[in-house]
Design brief:
The chain is an alpha/beta fold. The chain has helices at 12-22, 39-47, 64-77, 92-101, 122-135, 149-154, 177-180, 189-199, 203-206, 215-223, 229-235, 245-256, 262-269, 276-286, 312-321, 325-328, 333-366, 416-427, 458-461; strands spanning 27-32, 54-58, 106-111, 140-146, 168-171, 290-293, 306-309, 375-383, 388-398, 401-408, 414-415, 434-441, 445-446, 455-457. The chain has three domains: 12-171, P-loop containing nucleotide triphosphate hydrolases (Rossmann fold); 178-344, Arc Repressor Mutant, subunit A (Orthogonal Bundle), CATH 1.10.10; 354-461, 3-Layer(aba) Sandwich (Trna Endonuclease, Chain: A, domain 1).
Length: 466
Protein backbone atom coordinates (compact mmCIF):
# COMPACT_ATOMS: atom_id res chain seq x y z
CA UNK A 1 0.00 0.00 0.00
CA UNK A 2 1.31 3.45 -0.92
CA UNK A 3 1.08 6.15 1.70
CA UNK A 4 1.03 9.44 -0.17
CA UNK A 5 -1.45 12.18 0.65
CA UNK A 6 0.03 14.94 -1.50
CA UNK A 7 -2.04 15.59 -4.62
CA UNK A 8 -0.45 14.65 -7.92
CA UNK A 9 -0.83 17.43 -10.48
CA UNK A 10 0.93 18.25 -13.74
CA UNK A 11 4.10 16.15 -14.34
CA UNK A 12 2.18 14.15 -16.97
CA UNK A 13 5.20 13.86 -19.26
CA UNK A 14 7.54 12.70 -16.50
CA UNK A 15 4.95 10.27 -15.12
CA UNK A 16 4.39 8.70 -18.54
CA UNK A 17 8.13 8.30 -19.19
CA UNK A 18 8.80 6.81 -15.75
CA UNK A 19 5.83 4.44 -15.95
CA UNK A 20 7.08 3.13 -19.30
CA UNK A 21 10.49 2.45 -17.75
CA UNK A 22 9.04 0.68 -14.74
CA UNK A 23 6.93 -1.63 -16.89
CA UNK A 24 10.07 -3.01 -18.54
CA UNK A 25 11.53 -6.25 -17.22
CA UNK A 26 14.81 -4.46 -16.49
CA UNK A 27 15.55 -0.73 -16.41
CA UNK A 28 17.54 1.93 -14.57
CA UNK A 29 16.47 5.53 -14.00
CA UNK A 30 18.01 8.53 -12.28
CA UNK A 31 15.80 11.29 -10.85
CA UNK A 32 17.11 14.45 -9.24
CA UNK A 33 15.95 17.89 -8.17
CA UNK A 34 16.09 20.06 -5.09
CA UNK A 35 14.31 19.20 -1.86
CA UNK A 36 10.52 19.12 -1.72
CA UNK A 37 10.20 19.41 -5.50
CA UNK A 38 8.05 16.28 -5.78
CA UNK A 39 10.50 13.46 -6.55
CA UNK A 40 9.00 11.07 -4.00
CA UNK A 41 5.46 11.92 -5.11
CA UNK A 42 6.38 11.19 -8.74
CA UNK A 43 7.96 7.85 -7.81
CA UNK A 44 5.04 6.74 -5.66
CA UNK A 45 2.52 7.82 -8.30
CA UNK A 46 4.42 5.84 -10.94
CA UNK A 47 4.22 2.73 -8.72
CA UNK A 48 0.43 2.95 -9.01
CA UNK A 49 0.76 2.35 -12.74
CA UNK A 50 2.70 -0.93 -12.62
CA UNK A 51 1.63 -4.47 -11.87
CA UNK A 52 4.57 -5.80 -9.86
CA UNK A 53 5.85 -5.51 -6.29
CA UNK A 54 7.81 -2.40 -5.46
CA UNK A 55 9.92 -0.90 -2.69
CA UNK A 56 10.61 2.74 -1.93
CA UNK A 57 13.62 3.26 0.34
CA UNK A 58 15.10 6.56 1.56
CA UNK A 59 18.77 6.25 2.46
CA UNK A 60 19.94 7.18 5.93
CA UNK A 61 23.14 9.02 6.73
CA UNK A 62 24.69 5.80 7.92
CA UNK A 63 26.98 2.98 6.83
CA UNK A 64 26.39 0.83 3.77
CA UNK A 65 25.71 -2.14 6.05
CA UNK A 66 23.01 -0.26 7.95
CA UNK A 67 21.35 0.96 4.75
CA UNK A 68 21.43 -2.54 3.23
CA UNK A 69 19.80 -3.96 6.35
CA UNK A 70 17.08 -1.33 6.18
CA UNK A 71 16.45 -1.87 2.47
CA UNK A 72 16.28 -5.63 3.07
CA UNK A 73 13.68 -5.01 5.77
CA UNK A 74 11.58 -2.99 3.32
CA UNK A 75 11.83 -5.84 0.81
CA UNK A 76 10.51 -8.22 3.47
CA UNK A 77 7.63 -5.88 4.26
CA UNK A 78 6.75 -5.79 0.57
CA UNK A 79 6.63 -9.58 0.49
CA UNK A 80 9.52 -9.82 -1.97
CA UNK A 81 11.94 -11.50 0.47
CA UNK A 82 11.07 -14.21 3.04
CA UNK A 83 11.01 -13.04 6.65
CA UNK A 84 13.69 -15.52 7.74
CA UNK A 85 16.22 -14.56 5.05
CA UNK A 86 19.51 -12.97 6.06
CA UNK A 87 22.53 -11.78 4.11
CA UNK A 88 26.02 -12.92 5.07
CA UNK A 89 27.74 -9.90 3.51
CA UNK A 90 25.64 -6.77 3.83
CA UNK A 91 26.55 -4.88 0.67
CA UNK A 92 24.27 -3.50 -2.02
CA UNK A 93 25.88 -5.79 -4.60
CA UNK A 94 25.11 -8.87 -2.51
CA UNK A 95 21.55 -7.75 -1.84
CA UNK A 96 20.78 -7.08 -5.49
CA UNK A 97 22.48 -10.32 -6.54
CA UNK A 98 20.05 -12.14 -4.29
CA UNK A 99 17.00 -10.10 -5.37
CA UNK A 100 17.80 -10.74 -9.02
CA UNK A 101 18.13 -14.48 -8.38
CA UNK A 102 14.49 -14.61 -7.26
CA UNK A 103 13.41 -14.19 -10.89
CA UNK A 104 10.53 -12.04 -9.64
CA UNK A 105 9.77 -8.79 -11.49
CA UNK A 106 10.02 -5.88 -9.07
CA UNK A 107 10.69 -2.12 -8.87
CA UNK A 108 13.06 -0.61 -6.32
CA UNK A 109 13.55 3.11 -5.73
CA UNK A 110 16.54 4.24 -3.65
CA UNK A 111 16.04 7.87 -2.65
CA UNK A 112 18.63 10.34 -1.29
CA UNK A 113 21.43 8.35 -2.91
CA UNK A 114 23.99 11.08 -2.06
CA UNK A 115 23.67 10.18 1.64
CA UNK A 116 25.54 6.95 0.90
CA UNK A 117 28.60 8.95 -0.09
CA UNK A 118 29.02 10.31 3.43
CA UNK A 119 29.98 6.84 4.69
CA UNK A 120 31.09 5.14 1.48
CA UNK A 121 33.56 6.87 -0.89
CA UNK A 122 31.74 8.19 -3.95
CA UNK A 123 33.72 6.18 -6.49
CA UNK A 124 33.22 3.01 -4.43
CA UNK A 125 29.43 3.26 -4.09
CA UNK A 126 29.07 4.36 -7.72
CA UNK A 127 31.16 1.37 -8.84
CA UNK A 128 28.97 -0.92 -6.73
CA UNK A 129 25.84 0.31 -8.49
CA UNK A 130 27.59 0.02 -11.84
CA UNK A 131 28.05 -3.69 -11.10
CA UNK A 132 24.43 -3.92 -9.97
CA UNK A 133 23.04 -2.30 -13.12
CA UNK A 134 25.35 -4.27 -15.41
CA UNK A 135 24.82 -7.68 -13.80
CA UNK A 136 22.04 -7.85 -11.20
CA UNK A 137 18.83 -6.18 -12.41
CA UNK A 138 17.62 -8.68 -15.02
CA UNK A 139 14.22 -8.64 -13.31
CA UNK A 140 14.42 -5.28 -11.57
CA UNK A 141 13.44 -1.73 -12.48
CA UNK A 142 15.84 0.41 -10.45
CA UNK A 143 15.48 4.11 -9.59
CA UNK A 144 18.23 6.19 -8.01
CA UNK A 145 17.03 9.55 -6.74
CA UNK A 146 18.52 12.47 -4.83
CA UNK A 147 18.30 16.11 -3.85
CA UNK A 148 21.96 17.10 -3.96
CA UNK A 149 21.94 18.12 -7.59
CA UNK A 150 25.70 18.27 -8.20
CA UNK A 151 26.23 14.69 -6.95
CA UNK A 152 23.32 13.36 -8.98
CA UNK A 153 24.53 15.18 -12.08
CA UNK A 154 27.99 13.66 -11.56
CA UNK A 155 26.49 10.19 -12.12
CA UNK A 156 25.80 11.23 -15.71
CA UNK A 157 29.33 12.43 -16.48
CA UNK A 158 31.70 10.46 -18.66
CA UNK A 159 34.30 9.99 -15.93
CA UNK A 160 31.76 8.38 -13.55
CA UNK A 161 31.36 4.61 -13.23
CA UNK A 162 27.61 4.97 -13.80
CA UNK A 163 27.96 6.93 -17.04
CA UNK A 164 25.65 5.57 -19.73
CA UNK A 165 23.89 3.18 -17.34
CA UNK A 166 20.55 5.00 -17.11
CA UNK A 167 17.80 4.50 -19.63
CA UNK A 168 15.94 7.55 -18.31
CA UNK A 169 17.23 10.74 -16.73
CA UNK A 170 14.68 13.07 -15.08
CA UNK A 171 15.64 16.47 -13.72
CA UNK A 172 12.54 17.47 -11.80
CA UNK A 173 12.06 21.21 -11.51
CA UNK A 174 9.61 23.22 -9.44
CA UNK A 175 6.23 24.00 -11.00
CA UNK A 176 6.21 27.13 -13.11
CA UNK A 177 3.71 29.94 -12.50
CA UNK A 178 0.94 28.21 -14.49
CA UNK A 179 1.17 24.74 -12.95
CA UNK A 180 1.49 26.31 -9.48
CA UNK A 181 -1.84 28.08 -10.03
CA UNK A 182 -3.58 24.70 -9.96
CA UNK A 183 -3.29 24.91 -6.17
CA UNK A 184 -5.33 28.17 -6.02
CA UNK A 185 -7.53 27.90 -9.13
CA UNK A 186 -10.23 30.39 -8.16
CA UNK A 187 -7.98 33.39 -7.66
CA UNK A 188 -7.73 36.25 -10.17
CA UNK A 189 -4.61 36.49 -12.36
CA UNK A 190 -3.44 39.37 -10.16
CA UNK A 191 -3.76 37.15 -7.08
CA UNK A 192 -2.27 34.08 -8.76
CA UNK A 193 0.83 36.00 -9.76
CA UNK A 194 1.23 37.23 -6.19
CA UNK A 195 0.86 33.75 -4.69
CA UNK A 196 3.49 32.34 -7.03
CA UNK A 197 5.85 35.25 -6.40
CA UNK A 198 5.75 34.63 -2.65
CA UNK A 199 5.39 30.86 -2.34
CA UNK A 200 7.04 29.63 -5.53
CA UNK A 201 6.56 26.27 -7.19
CA UNK A 202 7.44 23.61 -4.60
CA UNK A 203 4.55 21.10 -4.39
CA UNK A 204 5.26 20.74 -0.66
CA UNK A 205 4.76 24.45 -0.09
CA UNK A 206 1.85 24.80 -2.51
CA UNK A 207 -0.02 21.99 -0.75
CA UNK A 208 0.06 24.03 2.47
CA UNK A 209 -1.66 27.07 0.92
CA UNK A 210 -5.29 27.60 1.84
CA UNK A 211 -6.92 28.66 -1.45
CA UNK A 212 -9.94 30.01 0.44
CA UNK A 213 -7.79 32.65 2.15
CA UNK A 214 -6.16 35.70 0.60
CA UNK A 215 -2.42 36.25 0.17
CA UNK A 216 -2.08 38.23 3.39
CA UNK A 217 -3.64 35.53 5.55
CA UNK A 218 -1.56 32.79 3.91
CA UNK A 219 1.62 34.78 4.55
CA UNK A 220 0.54 35.27 8.16
CA UNK A 221 -0.33 31.59 8.65
CA UNK A 222 2.59 30.02 6.78
CA UNK A 223 5.47 32.47 7.16
CA UNK A 224 4.80 34.67 10.19
CA UNK A 225 3.43 32.06 12.59
CA UNK A 226 6.40 30.59 14.51
CA UNK A 227 4.96 27.05 14.58
CA UNK A 228 4.50 26.86 10.80
CA UNK A 229 6.19 23.94 9.04
CA UNK A 230 6.61 26.09 5.92
CA UNK A 231 8.50 28.71 7.92
CA UNK A 232 10.76 25.96 9.27
CA UNK A 233 11.30 24.70 5.73
CA UNK A 234 12.27 28.15 4.48
CA UNK A 235 14.50 28.97 7.43
CA UNK A 236 16.46 25.78 7.91
CA UNK A 237 15.66 22.76 5.81
CA UNK A 238 17.02 24.13 2.54
CA UNK A 239 20.36 24.90 4.15
CA UNK A 240 20.57 21.83 6.36
CA UNK A 241 23.51 20.30 4.46
CA UNK A 242 25.71 23.37 4.27
CA UNK A 243 28.75 23.55 6.51
CA UNK A 244 29.14 27.34 6.22
CA UNK A 245 25.53 28.17 6.91
CA UNK A 246 26.13 31.59 8.49
CA UNK A 247 28.06 32.84 5.45
CA UNK A 248 25.51 31.32 3.09
CA UNK A 249 22.72 33.15 4.88
CA UNK A 250 24.60 36.45 4.59
CA UNK A 251 24.90 35.82 0.85
CA UNK A 252 21.19 35.02 0.51
CA UNK A 253 20.27 38.19 2.41
CA UNK A 254 22.40 40.23 -0.03
CA UNK A 255 20.79 38.52 -3.01
CA UNK A 256 17.33 38.91 -1.49
CA UNK A 257 17.87 42.63 -1.18
CA UNK A 258 18.88 43.32 -4.75
CA UNK A 259 22.63 42.73 -4.89
CA UNK A 260 23.31 40.44 -7.82
CA UNK A 261 26.71 41.25 -9.35
CA UNK A 262 29.76 39.31 -8.21
CA UNK A 263 31.56 42.56 -7.35
CA UNK A 264 28.67 43.75 -5.16
CA UNK A 265 28.57 40.46 -3.29
CA UNK A 266 32.34 40.37 -2.95
CA UNK A 267 32.42 43.79 -1.24
CA UNK A 268 30.10 42.44 1.43
CA UNK A 269 31.33 38.88 1.85
CA UNK A 270 34.93 38.75 0.66
CA UNK A 271 36.55 42.22 0.66
CA UNK A 272 40.03 40.74 1.14
CA UNK A 273 39.72 38.61 -1.99
CA UNK A 274 40.30 35.30 -0.20
CA UNK A 275 38.15 33.28 -2.61
CA UNK A 276 35.59 32.75 0.11
CA UNK A 277 32.70 34.05 -2.02
CA UNK A 278 33.25 31.35 -4.65
CA UNK A 279 33.31 28.69 -1.92
CA UNK A 280 29.98 30.01 -0.61
CA UNK A 281 28.34 30.29 -4.03
CA UNK A 282 29.34 26.88 -5.39
CA UNK A 283 27.31 24.61 -3.06
CA UNK A 284 24.28 26.91 -3.28
CA UNK A 285 24.41 26.68 -7.07
CA UNK A 286 24.94 22.90 -6.83
CA UNK A 287 21.81 22.60 -4.66
CA UNK A 288 19.73 24.62 -7.12
CA UNK A 289 19.14 27.45 -4.64
CA UNK A 290 21.17 30.10 -6.46
CA UNK A 291 21.48 30.54 -10.22
CA UNK A 292 24.25 32.22 -12.19
CA UNK A 293 22.79 33.97 -15.21
CA UNK A 294 24.01 35.90 -18.24
CA UNK A 295 22.28 38.47 -20.46
CA UNK A 296 20.96 36.68 -23.54
CA UNK A 297 23.10 38.89 -25.78
CA UNK A 298 26.24 38.42 -23.62
CA UNK A 299 26.17 34.67 -22.92
CA UNK A 300 29.90 34.29 -22.27
CA UNK A 301 30.72 37.65 -20.71
CA UNK A 302 31.57 37.00 -17.06
CA UNK A 303 31.59 40.75 -16.37
CA UNK A 304 27.89 40.92 -17.23
CA UNK A 305 26.89 37.76 -15.33
CA UNK A 306 24.73 38.02 -12.23
CA UNK A 307 23.31 35.82 -9.48
CA UNK A 308 19.82 35.35 -8.09
CA UNK A 309 18.02 33.17 -5.58
CA UNK A 310 16.38 30.48 -7.71
CA UNK A 311 13.45 29.82 -5.39
CA UNK A 312 10.66 32.34 -4.81
CA UNK A 313 9.88 31.27 -1.25
CA UNK A 314 13.55 31.40 -0.26
CA UNK A 315 13.90 34.78 -1.95
CA UNK A 316 10.89 36.14 -0.05
CA UNK A 317 12.19 34.73 3.22
CA UNK A 318 15.62 36.35 2.87
CA UNK A 319 14.21 39.62 1.56
CA UNK A 320 11.57 40.13 4.25
CA UNK A 321 11.91 37.74 7.18
CA UNK A 322 15.47 36.69 7.93
CA UNK A 323 16.87 40.24 8.35
CA UNK A 324 14.07 40.99 10.86
CA UNK A 325 14.01 37.66 12.70
CA UNK A 326 14.76 39.28 16.10
CA UNK A 327 11.78 41.71 16.22
CA UNK A 328 9.56 39.17 14.45
CA UNK A 329 9.94 36.89 17.46
CA UNK A 330 8.00 39.44 19.55
CA UNK A 331 5.40 40.56 17.01
CA UNK A 332 1.90 39.18 16.72
CA UNK A 333 1.80 37.67 13.17
CA UNK A 334 -0.90 39.95 11.72
CA UNK A 335 0.78 43.05 13.08
CA UNK A 336 4.13 41.82 11.73
CA UNK A 337 2.59 41.65 8.26
CA UNK A 338 1.46 45.29 8.49
CA UNK A 339 4.84 46.51 9.72
CA UNK A 340 7.37 44.38 7.82
CA UNK A 341 5.68 42.90 4.74
CA UNK A 342 2.99 45.21 3.43
CA UNK A 343 5.11 48.34 2.79
CA UNK A 344 7.46 46.63 0.33
CA UNK A 345 5.26 43.86 -1.02
CA UNK A 346 4.00 45.45 -4.25
CA UNK A 347 7.50 46.44 -5.34
CA UNK A 348 8.66 42.89 -4.63
CA UNK A 349 5.75 41.37 -6.57
CA UNK A 350 6.40 43.67 -9.51
CA UNK A 351 9.96 42.41 -9.81
CA UNK A 352 8.90 38.77 -9.57
CA UNK A 353 6.23 39.33 -12.21
CA UNK A 354 9.03 39.80 -14.72
CA UNK A 355 10.01 36.16 -14.15
CA UNK A 356 6.40 35.11 -14.70
CA UNK A 357 6.39 37.02 -17.99
CA UNK A 358 9.51 35.15 -19.12
CA UNK A 359 7.99 31.80 -18.21
CA UNK A 360 4.85 32.74 -20.12
CA UNK A 361 6.87 33.69 -23.20
CA UNK A 362 8.73 30.37 -23.08
CA UNK A 363 5.37 28.61 -23.02
CA UNK A 364 4.26 30.63 -26.05
CA UNK A 365 7.45 29.65 -27.87
CA UNK A 366 7.17 25.95 -27.03
CA UNK A 367 3.52 25.92 -28.12
CA UNK A 368 4.50 27.46 -31.47
CA UNK A 369 2.64 30.72 -30.88
CA UNK A 370 5.84 32.79 -31.07
CA UNK A 371 8.47 31.66 -33.57
CA UNK A 372 12.04 32.46 -34.53
CA UNK A 373 13.28 33.09 -30.98
CA UNK A 374 16.80 32.11 -29.93
CA UNK A 375 16.53 32.89 -26.21
CA UNK A 376 14.47 34.61 -23.53
CA UNK A 377 15.94 36.58 -20.67
CA UNK A 378 17.71 39.78 -19.66
CA UNK A 379 19.13 41.97 -22.44
CA UNK A 380 22.13 44.23 -21.76
CA UNK A 381 22.63 47.43 -23.73
CA UNK A 382 25.45 49.94 -23.90
CA UNK A 383 24.36 53.00 -25.90
CA UNK A 384 27.46 55.00 -26.83
CA UNK A 385 25.45 57.81 -28.37
CA UNK A 386 23.67 58.62 -25.13
CA UNK A 387 26.47 57.36 -22.85
CA UNK A 388 24.03 55.10 -21.06
CA UNK A 389 23.86 51.41 -20.26
CA UNK A 390 21.47 49.11 -18.52
CA UNK A 391 19.32 46.03 -18.83
CA UNK A 392 15.89 45.08 -20.02
CA UNK A 393 14.62 42.31 -17.78
CA UNK A 394 12.34 40.67 -20.35
CA UNK A 395 13.51 40.28 -23.93
CA UNK A 396 13.42 37.83 -26.82
CA UNK A 397 16.60 37.40 -28.84
CA UNK A 398 16.27 36.76 -32.58
CA UNK A 399 18.78 36.46 -35.40
CA UNK A 400 17.57 39.75 -36.80
CA UNK A 401 17.27 41.74 -33.57
CA UNK A 402 15.51 41.83 -30.22
CA UNK A 403 11.94 42.05 -28.94
CA UNK A 404 11.64 44.09 -25.73
CA UNK A 405 8.82 43.42 -23.28
CA UNK A 406 7.53 45.52 -20.41
CA UNK A 407 5.97 43.48 -17.61
CA UNK A 408 3.38 45.42 -15.60
CA UNK A 409 2.09 44.16 -12.28
CA UNK A 410 -0.48 46.91 -11.77
CA UNK A 411 -3.70 46.78 -9.77
CA UNK A 412 -5.42 48.47 -12.71
CA UNK A 413 -5.22 48.20 -16.52
CA UNK A 414 -2.29 49.83 -18.27
CA UNK A 415 -3.40 52.92 -20.19
CA UNK A 416 -2.36 54.29 -23.56
CA UNK A 417 -0.23 57.03 -22.02
CA UNK A 418 1.94 54.49 -20.20
CA UNK A 419 2.32 52.35 -23.30
CA UNK A 420 3.41 55.35 -25.39
CA UNK A 421 5.84 56.48 -22.67
CA UNK A 422 7.52 53.06 -22.47
CA UNK A 423 7.75 52.77 -26.25
CA UNK A 424 9.34 56.21 -26.47
CA UNK A 425 11.94 55.40 -23.82
CA UNK A 426 12.90 52.16 -25.53
CA UNK A 427 13.21 53.78 -28.95
CA UNK A 428 15.44 56.48 -27.47
CA UNK A 429 18.18 53.87 -27.01
CA UNK A 430 19.78 53.99 -30.45
CA UNK A 431 22.07 51.00 -29.91
CA UNK A 432 19.15 48.60 -29.87
CA UNK A 433 18.11 46.73 -33.00
CA UNK A 434 14.46 46.44 -31.97
CA UNK A 435 12.09 44.25 -33.93
CA UNK A 436 9.03 44.51 -31.67
CA UNK A 437 7.96 46.03 -28.37
CA UNK A 438 5.48 44.08 -26.30
CA UNK A 439 3.64 44.34 -23.00
CA UNK A 440 2.51 41.79 -20.42
CA UNK A 441 -0.04 43.43 -18.11
CA UNK A 442 -1.60 41.29 -15.40
CA UNK A 443 -4.75 43.46 -15.32
CA UNK A 444 -4.95 44.07 -19.03
CA UNK A 445 -5.11 47.36 -20.92
CA UNK A 446 -7.27 50.45 -20.99
CA UNK A 447 -6.88 50.78 -24.75
CA UNK A 448 -7.82 48.89 -27.88
CA UNK A 449 -5.24 46.13 -28.43
CA UNK A 450 -7.15 44.24 -31.12
CA UNK A 451 -4.78 43.25 -33.89
CA UNK A 452 -1.71 43.74 -31.68
CA UNK A 453 0.16 40.44 -31.30
CA UNK A 454 2.40 41.35 -28.39
CA UNK A 455 -0.07 42.77 -25.85
CA UNK A 456 -0.71 40.03 -23.30
CA UNK A 457 -3.05 40.16 -20.31
CA UNK A 458 -3.39 38.15 -17.11
CA UNK A 459 -6.14 36.15 -18.82
CA UNK A 460 -3.62 35.22 -21.53
CA UNK A 461 -1.08 34.17 -18.89
CA UNK A 462 -3.49 31.83 -17.15
CA UNK A 463 -5.39 30.56 -20.18
CA UNK A 464 -8.68 32.11 -19.17
CA UNK A 465 -9.59 33.08 -22.73
CA UNK A 466 -10.04 30.95 -25.80
Amino acid sequence: MISNTRPFVAREKQLKSLSVQLKKKSSSTVIYGKRKVGKTTLILESFRHIDKPFVYYECAKDTEQSNVESLLLECKRAGIVPEHFGLERKTFVDLFRYLDSLNTPMAIAIDEYPYLREFVPGDTIDSSFQKIIDNHIHNISLILSGSYISIMKSLLKEDNALYGRFGLNIFLEEFDYLDASLFYPNKTPYEKAAFYSVFGGSPYVLSAIDPNKDLEQNIVDLLLTPESAILAYASSLLLGELGNRAQSERLLVSLGNGKKKYGELKETLDPRNTGNLTRILSPLIDMGLVAKLYPINKPNDSRKSFYCIDDNLLRFYYAFLYPRRSPLAFYEPSRAYEVFIEPGLIQYLSRRFEDIAKQFLWRQINEGRIRGVLDVGTYYYDDRLTHSNGEFDVALLRHEGVDIFEAKYWSKPVDKKEVQKEIGQIHSIKELNIKRIGFVSVNGFDLDVSGLDFMFTGDDLYGLKE
